[in-house]
Amino acid sequence: MNMLKNFFVIALTVAALTAINLTIANAGDINADGIVGKWKDPDGTAIVQIESKGGYYEGVVVEDAENPDVVSTIVFKNLVYDAADSVWNGTVYSIKKSKDFNAKIRMDSGDNFTLTVKAGLGSKKIDWARVE
Questions:
Q1: What's the CA gap between 25 and 30, in Å, rounded?
Q2: What is the C-alpha separation between 102 and 113, in angstroms, rounded?
Q3: 90 and which of 45, 62, 79, 109 could share a cystine (Cβ 3.0–4.6 Å)?
């Protein structure tokens, strides 16, 4: 009976360690440079290129067929990666409102991120997709 009990303890320990290892592996898929690339604005036709600028990241409109005058506009500013929370904090420029807002970006996967924009007491979440 004691041997059976030890077997179950070992089996549960192995299962728990495997689950922890999978969680750590998935969390490790996202890193600071994971945000670098081209992203589609879900509210319009803009394509934004996010690049590393050393200690921070910046996103510039590189294409917009409907609004070519906004090309070269910097929309993501001073994005700094917080490894403890796996998020980028900075500001986002609203072209429609001509104003900067506090922003947080959390990657859902390598191909998607959620932008949370804070204005006053409210906030809005916007999902972006990577352009291939």
A1: 10
A2: 16
A3: 79
Q: Give me the domain span that covers residue 70.
A: 32-130
CA angle 15, 18, 20 (to 5 degrees): 110
Q: Using CA atoms, how far apart are residues 71 and 55, in angstroms rounded to an integer?
A: 24
Distance CA 13, CA 98 (A): 55
Spell out a b/e string for 67-95, using b for 16 or more CB atoms within 10 Å of the CB, else e. Answer: eeeeeebebbbbbebeeeebbbbbbbbeb
- Backbone phi, then psi, for 116, in 5-degree steps? -110, 120
Q: CA 124 to CA 113: how far, in whole Å?
A: 14
Domain shared by 22 and 49, yes or no: no
10 plus 59 within the same structural domain: no
Q: Whole-prediction pTM value?
A: 0.76
CATH no. for residue 112? 2.40.128.520
